From TrEMBL:
Superkingdom: Bacteria
GO biological process, one term: methylation
Pfam families: PCMT
Keyword field: Cytoplasm, Methyltransferase, S-adenosyl-L-methionine, Transferase
EC number: 2.1.1.77
An example Gene Ontology molecular-function term: protein-L-isoaspartate (D-aspartate) O-methyltransferase activity
Entry's Gene Ontology cellular component terms: cytoplasm
Protein name: Protein-L-isoaspartate O-methyltransferase
Top EC class of this enzyme: transferase
């Protein structure tokens, strides 16, 4: 990022990250920029150096398969911002996130909707959900529903959802997601194509 992080606060790095993301055309919704600025991303990726946590272009891998491939990560901030712009969360929206990751995105969603208990995040890996729950609780968003389960099936217990976002890359949109989306709802997902993913 070009900043000496030995003397720079996380807040300053966060402000620099948001400025770069916005200059590149992401986080154009003021509320998305606000929650990015207000949320301590480094607390969701505690093993990453501050410069890495706040690098706008870099995903932070937090969990790997035994063969070294990435299993879970904190998506690059530019991608988080782009998807949140597209999701366009309104206050009071009920939200399902497929792919809990570090809990960072669920924290942003909770702030955008105005109530943490309206956000459900699901992941198939119990280690991922345990870490996400700890980070959300530590940052004051323990009311987010963190579920261990197959996100491909959605989560019917809290449906219908006004907004659904997948931070995993599916090949297609499962029928269950459509069935759990409220009329007039919005779904954002990075469909997988045979190219390199940003996470």
């Amino acid at each position: 990022m070009g900043t000496d992080t030995t003397t720079v606060s996380p807040g300053s790095l966060r402000a620099e990250m948001v400025a770069k993301v916005r200059k590149s055309g992401y986080a154009q919704l003021s509320e998305v920029a606000r929650v990015l600025l207000d949320t301590p991303r480094h607390e969701f990726v505690p093993d990453a150096p501050l410069a890495t946590a706040y690098d706008p272009w870099q995903a932070v891998i937090t969990h790997r398969f035994q063969d070294g491939r990435s299993l879970s990560c904190a998506s690059a901030p530019w991608l988080v911002a782009a998807m949140l712009d597209q999701l366009h969360v309104q206050p009071g929206n009920r939200i399902l996130e497929i792919g809990a990751g570090t809990g960072y995105n669920a924290c942003l969603l909770a702030q955008l909707t105005g109530r943490a208990d309206l956000v459900t995040t699901i992941d198939i890996d119990p280690d991922v959900t345990a870490k996400a729950k700890r980070a959300l609780t530590a940052t004051g968003y323990g009311d987010v529903h963190v579920i261990t389960g197959d996100g491909g099936l959605g989560y019917p217990d809290h449906a219908p959802y006004d907004r659904m976002i997948a931070t995993v890359s599916p090949w297609d949109i499962p029928a269950q997601w459509w069935q759990q989306l409220a009329p007039g709802g919005r779904l954002v997902a990075p469909l997988r194509f045979p190219v390199k993913s940003a996470c």
